[in-house]
Design brief:
Blueprint (H helix, E strand, L loop, with lengths): L5 H7 L2 H11 L3 H8 L14 E8 L9 E9 L10 E4 L8 H7 L3 H5 L4 H12 L3 E4 L2 H16 L7 E3 H9 L3 H8 L9 H7 L10 H19 L12
Helix pairs in contact: 2-3, 3-6
């Protein structure tokens, strides 16, 4: 698992200022346009925020040694998921797939044989995400992998605020006094994985480890989390990271 890097901690305190600074300094045109597209202000109620659920399947957990092989994006709002706007790409990793990776995400050698490089879909991906608050389940995959992949191809990385549905579950089931008491009793921690989290809200079980399906599952999970534990007036700054 990857911890949050020091640079990430700095920018989280002022995402709007960080994005504006990157818009001025970015050399790549698509990155410059992405950063220049205004995001909602930190005090915007979540009900008014345009969002995009993002999921990636990778060949492993270390962005320094592994690569992205598929990307799913589902634009949505708190009350609507327009599936016609979904996007899905399979991209060719820089290293051959191994059998364990294939068994996990079910993307085969034949599927990636004619797949484009990540760089070929990056402009479209950035255009879909621009101006939307990105929602993921476990940011320590999507954030470092995307940053590393962009940096390798464009010479400069990409960082932006996210809502992490796993982090929201951790607040409620790993960081409360009751959760600490359970640990003191020696009981196992409550699972905050995507499937287990959805199950707590009565959401249907989906086939996991498919980037587009998991992106949809993450969008639905956030809608449920806000409904159960927050309100439509909850400000963005209270839940983004």
């Amino acid at each position: 698992m990857h911890g949050i890097r020091p640079r990430q901690k700095v920018v989280q305190a002022n995402w709007i200022g960080y994005m504006a600074e990157r818009a001025e300094k970015a050399h790549d045109g698509s990155l410059r346009e992405f950063f220049a597209t205004p995001l909602p202000s930190p005090d915007t109620p979540i009900a008014q925020v345009p969002m995009a659920a993002l999921d990636m399947e990778t060949t492993g957990l270390d962005e320094r040694r592994h690569a992205i092989i598929s990307i799913g994006v589902v634009p949505f709002t708190l009350d609507r998921i327009p599936l016609a706007q979904r996007r899905y790409w399979v991209v060719k990793p820089s290293r051959p797939l191994d059998e364990a990776s294939i068994a996990y995400h079910h993307i085969t050698h034949s599927e990636i044989a004619t797949a484009p490089d990540f760089d070929a879909v990056l402009d479209e991906l950035l255009a879909v995400l621009a101006g939307r608050l990105v929602v993921v389940h476990f940011r320590n995959i999507e954030r470092p992998f995307l940053d590393a992949a962009v940096k390798a191809r464009r010479g400069e990385g990409v960082m932006f605020p996210m809502i992490d549905t796993m982090s929201l579950e951790a607040r409620m089931h790993r960081q409360t006094l009751w959760a600490r008491f359970r640990r003191w009793l020696g009981r196992p921690p409550v699972s905050i994985r995507l499937h287990a989290s959805r199950e707590r809200y009565g959401l249907p079980a989906y086939q996991g480890h498919h980037a587009l399906v998991d992106a949809l599952a993450t969008a639905e999970l956030l809608q449920a989390q806000i409904s159960y534990h927050y309100t439509p007036e909850t400000q963005l700054k209270d839940i983004w990271v």
